[in-house]
Amino acid sequence: MMRRLVFLVGVLCLLQIPGLPAESLAAAAPKPIAIQDHEVADVEVALLEVKRTSGNTVTVRWHYRNKSSRAIRLQHGSGSMDAYRLAREAYLLDAVNRVKYVVLKDSNSQPIAARHPQFGSRVVLAPRQTVVTWAKFQAPPAGVTNMTVNVPGAPPFEDAPLS
User: Fold this and answer.
1) Cβ within 8 Å of residue 98, ≥6 positions away
2) Residues with Cβ < 8 Å from 148, sequence gap 6 or more?
């Protein structure tokens, strides 16, 4: 009983501090570069970041968001167990040099990308669920400032700024 009372008092104190928690949480969430509708209705795909990173690589982050109040199955991958199915088929296009960059692989031929083993043999987003994922790619030449980002299930994100 005492623990519940202490918890409730703590929550009430937080609610009375200006700017917490809603404003600070909103400030922490990055504004998407662009948002596309997924090929499955009621799912959006937001491009969050396309950034040059160490090792002459580019890291791309994006999320899938179920906007509905029902679970939605996405049609990604072959149906076999694949923890990388959200990123495996992603790629970048450098329109200036006409080069396609696929997801980099490690020494075991596994994608250098987010693992999502929770999805098992299929991707099912719970109601209102958002799943953030990422992948690494070889970096284009230094003069390239925009890329087309292709992620599974969404139309291309064209001319995405490369920071």
Assistant:
1) none
2) 92, 93, 95, 156, 157, 158, 159, 160
Q: Which of 82, 92, 40, 42 is nearest to 62 (CA)?
A: 92
The length of the chain is 163
What phi and psi values does residue 15 have, to the nearest 5 degrees? -65, -20
Give whole-number Cα distances, 29 to 26, 111, 129, 132, in Å: 5, 26, 15, 12
Considering only the top CATH level, what class is 31-161?
mainly beta
The span from the CA of 123 to the CA of 74, in Å, is 5
Q: What is the pTM (predicted TM-score) of this model? A: 0.79
Question: pLDDT tens digit string along 85-134?
Answer: 788 889 999 999 999 999 999 999 999 999 887 776 678 899 999 999 99
Residue ranges per domain, the chain? 1-30, 31-161
